[in-house]
Fold each of these.
Amino acid sequence: MRKLLADWFEDRTGLSGPLRSMREEPLPAGPRWRYVCGSALLAILLIQAFTGLMMMTAYSASSSTAWGSVFYIEKQMWMGWFIRGMHHFGAQAVMVLLFIHLLQVLFAAAYRAPREVNWWLGLVLLVLIVGFGHTGYQLPWDQKGYWATKVVTNIMGGAPVLGPYVKTVVVGGSEYGNQTVTRFYGLHVGILPVLLAIVLGGHLALRYRHGLKPPADAADVPPDAPRATYFPDQTFRNSLVVTAIVGVLIGLVLWEGGAPLDAPADPASPDYPARPEWFFRFLFQMLKSFPGRLEWVGSIAIPGALMTTMALLPLLDKVMPSKLLHFLACTLAFALAGGALFLTIASFREDAGNPSFQEARTKADAANERALYLAAHPDFGIPPQGAGFLLRFDPLTRGGDLLEKKCLGCHRVDGKGTGDQSAPDLKDFGSYAWIRGLLEKPDAEAYFGKAPECDGMTEWKKSTKLDAEQLDQVAEFVATFAKIPADQSVDEWLNTPGVADHPGNALFQKDCGKCHLIDGYTEGGVRDAPDLFAWGSPRWMKRMIRKPSEAGLYGYLEAKQRMPAAPPDDMPESDVDMIVRYIKGDYLKPAAKP
Amino acid sequence: MNRRDFHRLGTIVLGGLIKLAVAVPAAAFLLNPLRKPGTAAEADVFEGLVALSQLKVGVPESFGIVRDQVDAWVKYPKEPAGAVWLVRQPEGAEPAVIAYSAECPHLGCAINLADDAKHFICPCHTSAFDLEGKPQNFVPPRPMDRLDVELSKDADPMVRVRFQRFRTLAEEKIPLA
């Protein structure tokens, strides 16, 4: 039955003949380790294609979903980290093998007749594979991918004449977004693979046409040596090497626990320390030597001249002495490899000795860790607006940023600020510790020491007769104000159990109520002072941010001494909410590590 | 075993190992949806839909179920997840309210109330049920799926329903994860 089927198949396709001739290709000089490189490259490319196909079943290409789907692959799906890790490290293995393969062919002078066309096809494959590398690692649309896209497309845009048009077509407009991701995805999983299949098909067909280039010592093989064929003698060596490479890849995946995923793309993060993959580092470093308008020399002219030179090798071979050309080409290859190594090391060393890079990297790592934590948290998750909103909806990240940008020019948080302090420290604002500190020493820098116009508390402190225990009670009482719900009136609050009979209540009414007017509760009037009802609660803080000139707040101060109001145009409600929640510590916190 | 046989065997074994190293994780990757996500806790949540006094005895009324939904990696807050039919029973009957999933046990279309308000029909393949959820033709494989109902302790109790999905086409009611 099996024979019947095999015969039928052979009759209809005639495939077994060519296949058998490939298997039984004679190896006159026997199997060689130096023949494994191309096969290993092919094997890893197949693994790339396969793991890539797997991820296509889970990846979602758009600027709002890409990061989330990669997060899902990496952190939630069964073996997702393994599949993605293999693809990630496989890509790097391809780069290494490609480089070795190229050098090997160059050293063996296999660009010479009759293999010229195959040499050219190989160079095309080199460009295609570099294209795979570039289009692939931005697909997660994380910080790394986003900034890499910008840099690469701007390099395209810097090319003379056609550059800007090419860039617009590739990016899908002038803005980086959904269409950018879909276009790079289309390139990575559609256009480039088709081109690769065609060119690689040609490359392999020609390799079988010309056979493997026999080594120089092939003639020395004794005529009575055992006859070797491609299968199994060479395939065994190939399998051993591929097994070793796959073993290393698996080791790297296990060691790293998958592939890296940076925080979601954030166009508004000027301090993100963007760096390319290690195998592009020398190009990255080289570009630093070509300032401004000369950038295209480094990014286009030099690589272009290099590729042209390599492409011309078979033709130069006809007009120059072969040996001299080969010597020059190999010397050039060594010089370039040395140069690339030098630039790569220089780039890493520069970063290692650059404190501001380290600081930016630390910050980026913290943002990354936070994004992954929030995405995985059942109470948070990735919002429908997209992963870019993950950190924008997080009071710790967004509130902290806004506070730093909008408030810390005057205020401080735990002594840290960006300008000259002229307002209190906001650390624990509204808490018992804050109010107790104020009652102890109102003219401390953390309170009103830097705001001389708010000297009412300082004067009160000189005249008050409250002792330490009574101050504790008042502070405890005032600290409860922060918990007053947003919709509660003064009357409702006073009727809440625990308010009227609080030990600090009477003290507050008598000692603080002389200045601080709370409608229906304290009289005020001795001096101007803010209304303290719901002080330290989100509603009070929001009023303070929106309209500090209200009569119940600091309206009594001269305009130039008041805190500037934040109008809704400048700061939407959601931003105010983020700042308040940041100050109140109202955000998800990872469980303390023991 | 001679050298060539060793090479032959080695090629096959190593090649097989390499293929397994990617095929096994790939199989797990593709089969990921079979792994039940942690919705078991969610399934135990009763959702308040309407005050009992708002329901008329014997008149079916439909209510949407709105809940936080996690669709693979995206968390959608308060999204419509499905619908239920509530039928209030006469005074003194136990339970006071019957809740049916509006998902047809045949192929999952939304069951609607017929124009005469005396029976349910499914607009897709004409499944028909009476107000007790019993099939009135041979299209549906089983009666309409009843859902757990409880009444809150308020003076005018809230009707609370535990929304669940069940396998379609099965003759038994088999909850989905």
Note: The interface with chain B takes residues 43, 47, 50-51, 54, 57-58, 65, 68-69, 71-72, 76-80, 82-83, 86, 226, 231-233, 235-236, 238-240, 242-243, 246, 250, 375, 380-384 of chain A (CB under 8 Å).
Amino acid sequence: MSLFIQSIINGLNQGAIYALIALGYTMVYGIIRMINFAHGDFIMVGAYSLFYTVPLMINYGMPAWMAVIIAIAVCVTVGVAVEIIAYRPVRGAGSMSALITALAMSLFLENLAMVLFGANPKSVPAIFTLPSIEVLGAKLQWKYLLTISIGIIMMVGLQLFVKKTKLGKAMRAVPQDKEASTLMGINVNKIITTTFAIGSGLAAVAALMYCSTYPRCTTDMGSMMGLKAFIAAVLGGIGSIPGAMVGGIIVGLVEIFVKVYIAPGWYEAITYSLLIFVLLIKPTGIMGKNAGEKV
Amino acid sequence: MPKSKKLSYIINVIGILVLFIGLYGLFQSNVLGTRTSYIKGIFTTACYTIILVTSLNLLVGFMGEFSLGHAGFMSVGAYASAILTNSLYDYGMPKLLLFIIALLVGGAAAACMGVLVGIPALRLRGDYLAIVTVAFAEIIRVAFCNFAVTGSGRTMSGIAKLSDFYWCYWAMVICVAVMYMYTRSRFGRTVIAIREDYIAASASGINVTYYKVLNFTISAFFAGIGGAMYAHYMTAMIPTNFNFMYSAEMLTEVIIGGTGSLTGSIIGAAFLSALPEAMRQFSIYRILAYSVVLVLVMIFKPGGIFGTWEFSLTRLIGKVAAFIKAPHARKGGNAYE
């Protein structure tokens, strides 16, 4: 029983991290219909900046989590730079070019990190020193609760932002019809850049959550995390913000439960099969809307 | 067969033979001294890379769909052929026969996997297909990490070293020739029609799914052959070699070379497999340079460096002949085109 509860807690924690990353995928896909393969690597960027800024914060006597502010700034800079330098020139060239460019940026960031920081994993200092409590024999760490609640806060905040604010409304208008939104006085380029900024900022928060659970960063952490989070986004229905949350939680829970109860070596295969299964049954995902194809 | 076409076939065969004899002479005469076997190794690497990249180009260039899981098919071919040759090695078969069997088995295993993956995956298009192929490749990798027969996640070593350069060269020539003929055949042209407009193609009575799965299977078959060569050249392998990165690298080579140009794939693959050896001290910058080149190619020349241009020896000879006959003529006559 305690193992079961422990698994649920671990799964929810894992799922909340995936959900935070998936939110970034969903934001970008929702607006320019492009899979930002480099999004996973933004998390890596965030994790490495935490590696350098956490000791700095501790030195100056500030709480360690304040390092996330610098990490967000770094990630937003990287995200916006990638968008302007690489994605913007190929935006009109079709989805194939966009996908290749995204892949190239992912390779670029990963290998740049390899050149800058070396191939050895770095261990990030402890970010939260929170106690843990016993619930029915399972160890419940407060930081897990924190991760889950941050995930929910982000989702609700983002949902309100997209639905209520003027900027959010513009964000929803752009994918519907670019020309018409230009005529309505929306600066499409600015909206897309803002979307990237928000997405990469979320990646920095996800990096904080990830590093508090697994205190190490490697140059290839982004691609694997990114793929899992992408699965979460597709599972929930890409383009839908609550969908990303639901998908993330499902992927996290499935992963931990397979690891603990079924076959430890096979958990990745099962996660990927889940993706294939969902895409074949309902390509738009659990909460996605069917867009229909134009001839 | 028209006379000019027959002539062009003969010219191409002679060209391939000349190249082979040149390389044979280079390696047998030992002009390069101690570096001979090293250079031979690079050429063998180039052979299987060329097969892999051209086979991926069948999907990316001729079908217009992404596969980011090509390393998965390659690993199926590699493991299937390695397991087979391990069990057949003690029967004293001639090595060439064993090599051919290994290639065919590797190709067949990968083709079976291609059908299994292709039927469900090709219902999706574009980005989703790319992701599903990644997922399938990862599933294959995880499976190979867990099966006892593939080494349970440890290095599988002691595979017979069968990939002799001369054999690999001819295998490569045959594979590329078959792929070239395939792209010019009725099937290949149908696949190109589907790429151009799948709705119009299906309205003209083409069974889109059938041709897509066929193309996918053929591509997987050649990837399996490439994998079998790889396994018998390296003699040791681990499932994690065939990861997402490797697939992405192959895709990079296809795109940089030119989607829709087998020449581009061949030159791209040959060049990029020699490059890391030539500048070993900069090896960490290699992928970094690839990705920068890839972005630049995407921005300035989205079709790749060679686009859809194909090299033709016959045309080249025709041009040279015309130039010799009338050096100042403004137009080169394309005698044999």
Note: Chain A has a mean pLDDT of 85.
